[in-house]
Amino acid sequence: MKSSDVRESMREWNHKWYGFWNLTGRDLPYPRAMDVVDRAFVPADKPRLIEYLKSCPIAIQCMTQHEFQCEFCDEYHSKSTFQSDGEWLWPDSLAHYVQCHNVALPNSFVQHIRDRAYVPCSMNTPIDINHLDWPELEIAENN
Ligand SMILES: [Zn+2]
Q1: Structure pTM?
Q2: Which residues place a Cβ less than 5 A from the ion ligand 1?
Q3: Nearest partner of 34 among 102, 100, 107, judged by Cα
Q4: Ligand 1 mean position to 108 CA, how many Å?
Q5: Helix (H, G, I), strand (E, B) or coil at 69
Q6: Cα four-point dihedral sign 39, 10, 47, 56
Q7: What distance in Å separates the CA atoms of residue 101 and residue 33, rounded to the nearest whole number?
Q8: What is the pLDDT along the chain (143 residues), one digit of tens a residue?
């Protein structure tokens, strides 16, 4: 995908979750990691954004730990460990994708982290995952 296309989709991202990659190759309403690589995504505060992603508490951790290989390198990541700041939810592999593979972050997510002055939330901020706007399942099933 072209850098300008990635920037367009990062401007339009209106969910409070990110980093759940389409690993199927089918046309799903969320991207593959390779679809959102933008080498031009180098804001001055990128290290602080990454640090924030890494530092927020784990909100969900499944008992069974499955791993998947990074789409770009040999690292393995947990499929079932998710971090949250009470408002946004992301898998704990997201920081790696942003740091090592130039995966871009949505504008709204970047702004949200800046608004919080890069301060990760405390360990006890609950998130109600049922109120996040997940993709419509029938879209996925019709493909
Ligand atoms: Zn990797």
Answers
A1: 0.87
A2: 70, 72-73, 75
A3: 102
A4: 24
A5: strand
A6: negative
A7: 9
A8: 678 889 999 999 999 999 988 877 788 878 889 999 999 999 999 999 999 999 999 888 877 778 889 989 999 998 888 999 989 999 999 999 999 999 999 999 999 999 999 999 877 677 777 777 776 644 444 44
